[in-house]
Write a structure and sequence with these properties.
Organism: Glutinoglossum americanum
Number of strands: 4
Helix content: 25-40%
Largest sheet: 2 strands, parallel
Protein name: Glycoside hydrolase family 2 catalytic domain-containing protein
Number of helices: 3
Radius of gyration: 15 Å
Structural class: alpha/beta
Strand content: 5-15%
Strand order of the largest sheet: 1-4
Order of helices and strands: HEEEHEH
Low-confidence stretches: none
Shape: globular
InterPro entries: GH
Length: about 120
């Protein structure tokens, strides 16, 4: 296991807004004025594909639901100022991208945008 600097925190896979916020709040450096960023999250493969993903969505709608839950947990948690979904495209051994290896969309881009562009509840 790689030792992370004190300013970093690893949040276990969760789609629960309160769980994500609580995990980040415990490790957040108070009063330092720096934004809290989640620099890697996501990792959902789409069913039928051979390769690796943290979890597997059966359909596009299932993938949309998982992404909406994950992004919602970050946006609604009121701690995170920015995030980066991992990963953008599939690669040889990982099929957890938003695009296939040959750059075809796994999700309707407008539906994906509506998930990431929404305001906190």
């Amino acid at each position: 296991m790689i030792e992370l600097p004190p300013s970093c925190v690893r949040v276990e896979r969760s789609r629960a807004r309160r769980a994500v916020a609580a995990a980040l709040r415990r490790r957040r450096l108070q009063g330092d004025g720096q934004p809290t960023l989640v620099t890697e999250f996501g990792g959902t493969a789409v069913g039928g594909a051979e390769g690796w993903g943290y979890e597997t969505a059966k359909t596009e709608d299932d993938l949309l639901s998982i992404c909406a839950d994950q992004v919602g947990a970050l946006i609604d948690g009121e701690i995170v100022q920015g995030f980066c979904y991992t990963q953008l495209t599939d690669i040889e051994q990982e099929v957890n991208g938003l695009l296939t290896y040959d750059r075809r969309h796994k999700l309707d881009p407008e539906k994906a945008r509506s998930i990431t562009a929404r305001r906190a509840k």
